[in-house]
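Lecture 7 notes. Example A: sequence first, then its structure tokens.
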Amino acid sequence: MKQITRFSLIGTLIGLLFVLLLSSCNELTKVQKSTDLYEKYSYAKKFYNTGKYEWAAQTLEEILPYFRGSSEMEQALYLKAQAYYKAKDYVQAQTAFSQYYTEFPNGEYTELARFYSGYGLAQDIPDPRLDQAKTIAAMQELQLFLDYYPQSEKAEEAKQLLFSLQENLAEKEVLNAKLYYNLGNYIFNNYESCIITARNAMKSYPYSIHKEEMHYYVVASLYQIAKNSVVEKQQQRLRDLRDEYYNFINEFPEGKYRKTVDKYFEYAEKNIDPNADWQ
């Protein structure tokens, strides 16, 4: 008897959910069929306020072309951008925010539009191993926001986010350097490519949390090059390794790679011929 009652309750709940869903769909269909722009606008705001952000954005997309030049255009356009943002469609949100601050450079919401244009894109950045076009686009938008509003209440948040995005790019460069290092002498001398990549990354991201690892791959690659060098070039390469070791320990005396680079230094010291220093 209890089991029958339980099944009956579940069935009732499913039925209610179905009715609510059907009612909601009918509401959207009704709005779509309406020819009254202001009724649609009213529903778009209702959808937004009740968390139906996709419906709000969809409805606003339909009516905005007819609002161009009207007093409603500014607020409706910003509402569309926020609807896409709340729906987590950050690419569409950035397009709408960008449209807003372009059309209303001195608008009521221009400062926020510039901020959220970059902030939204930053919520959807790819894994460091993937293409970083979105990361770069987010950084560009945030930098523009800071250029226009350096004293904004959101300026510090934008700066912190910019630094975080830079770390994403720095990590990608570390992964590239590591890839070259792991390839070693396969087909080409990939250690040279590793050194170039890591050194460029250190210049581009001098304050990165990945800087020690970048520098490590320079030292490690110089070690591999010296170790596998032809005799006539080995002495110079050993000295290059020794010099880079000193640069490394000056900056990271207690770093996590210290023991490893110490071994590379010992190898260099053991094999450097002091009589060859003049060459």
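Example B, a different protein, same format:
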Amino acid sequence: MVERYRTILAAEAAELKKRLPEGKLADMFEQCYLNTIDTTVKELEDGSLFVITGDIEAMWLRDSAAQVHHYLPAAARYEEIYDLIRRVLQKQVCYINKDPYANAFNAAANGRHYAPDRSGQTDWTWERKYEVDSLCFPISLAFELWKTTGRTEHLDHALKSACETVTEQWAAEQNHEEESPYRFERETDKETETLSRSGLGSPAAYTGMTWSGFRPSDDACTYGYLIPSNMYAAVALKQMSEMAESVWQDRGLADRAAILGGEIREGIERYGITDHGKYGRVYVYEADGLGNTLLMDDAGIPGLLSMPYFGYCDASDPVYQNTRRLVLSSDNPYFYEGTRLTGIGSPHTKPGHVWPMSLIIQALTSDDDAEIERLVRMLVENDAGTGYIHESIHKDDERIYTRPWFAWVNSLFSEMLMKKIMR
């Protein structure tokens, strides 16, 4: 069946490609559009679909959802592509119902792990770093598949059960200190690979937000309330509430999700904003409810730059615009300006490395044609001759890059071209 999916998507890519000028950009679009289906989707013996990230033989909830997100328009026209995304969701839901604290999973209970840790990992878990955004992505994908196609077959009992589990977990993690069963410790010399206080993480007070141990980059949070992930959680809970009311006709779940989402949003607006002397009111990246905040942005999604992309606010929102100016400046410690690339990087990679993902998100959240054109040109001219987009690239040398096979960013590049260039 995967080959049938590929045949349809190849035809779709060929048609979309015609809407771009002939040349490298069009060729890169086609190659990147097909990267997920060409290289990462595997049909297992039990008939389920397993989606690897690329160069890592594991399925991340976040990445696998993002890797098929650009196929949503095709799902509205082709039964087979709806089936592709539905089956990816089924696998994600299966994993969430096994362990909602895990971020990445194995194809079978084979005991493979990124590294051993003390977290309660099972033979199914490749890694058990708790990341709030990992649960947001499948929920939003399910919602968007419904809204794009009008179909509800994928909104089944297993997904509803997963949504109930997520709601309970996020509510418990509002009181991480008292109610959380989660601990994570790993023998490592990297602070970003383990949590302090015997795996509990740095202290946090109640804010209404929900706690996260790790960021989308898989790096440990400095402070437990990761603002962009809480923003995405508020969005996902609103989507969950609508699915519960309209499809499952479960007023109880709809109300719980709506109330929890409101509490998280209130916490963000109270504890996640600071007055900056240069930029005015801006969102911080992390907070702990005890007065500590972290002012920065990471290239990973969700990040502060990507707020409008995942639906927390409109791009014209004044606080977002202030925050955007800050994170796209040298006042963000992970913003790098070079001779080849200028944009946001991450503490996950070496200093001086810009993440193309941040450039793509910058374009997706802009209505400035000149800015979008500049960013697209930067991406196309810094592929090191591969025709693909990479995780990070040195700001002064396109030949120095990480992860040559990183499917998510190829999908995101395709999505950006479809939304911003093929208009």
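Note on Example B: The longest strand covers residues 397-402. The radius of gyration is 20 Å.
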